[in-house]
Amino acid sequence: MANDTLARQSYGFRDAKGMTCRASIWIYYDSAASAGGRVVGSNVSGAIDALSNAHAESTSGPFSAFLVPAYGATATYVDVEDKALLTFKHTDGTLSRLSIPAPISGMFLADGQTVNAALAAVVTLVTNLTTVSGTAVAVSQGKSPYSSLIGGIRVRRPNQRKMSIYTKSGNLDEPAE
């Protein structure tokens, strides 16, 4: 590639309570032919959106778009504190993680904790992360392409933001406490 570019692709999400979070990947592409970077970013955005109850609200990076602000779906994992943490292996042997906020309940096996790697939407995400589009490919920060999904688990991490009377509750009909 003549004009090598490593760019962070970020995705913003809003859950059913109005809380927000971000997920991000790295895309390596030739800036003279940046259409491939936009395609990779767009494909991964759609794959993450299919696995999340949160509403995709914004993107920044090679694929930039502002989507209509809305609250996410009220479901089993309603807020962005719940995440499906996926671990990927890269071609150079390094590992990286990608968090899916407010994951759909069908993403997990019967134990409710382990990600079902055979689920079609998970396979689509892995395919979109490992596919080269023109000169663009999703990579680690060290420019090593994704090679495979090792596995994933459900984690719950509290947000840094404090709740207030202006934060919506999960059932959307009464103020949060």
Write the layout of secondary structure elements.
Blueprint: E1 4-14, E2 20-30, H1 35-50, E3 55-60, E4 65-66, E5 82-90, E6 95-101, H2 120-130, E7 137-139, E8 146-156
Antiparallel strand pairs: 1-2, 1-3, 2-7, 3-4, 5-6, 5-8
Helix pairs in contact: 1-2
Task: List its salient traits.
globular; 15% helix; 8 strands; 177 residues; single chain; five-stranded antiparallel beta sheet; alpha+beta
Total helix count? Answer: 2
Rough shape?
globular
Strand order of the largest sheet: 4-3-1-2-7
Poorly predicted sequence stretches spanning 5 or more consecutive residues:
none
The rounded distance between the terminal residues' Cα atoms is 54 Å
Counted up, domains total 1
**H and E order:** EEHEEEEHEE
What proportion strand?
25-35%
| Biggest sheet record | 5 strands, antiparallel
Mean pLDDT: 84
Percent in helix: 10-25%
How many extended strands? Answer: 8
Structural class: alpha+beta
Q: What is Rg?
A: 17 Å
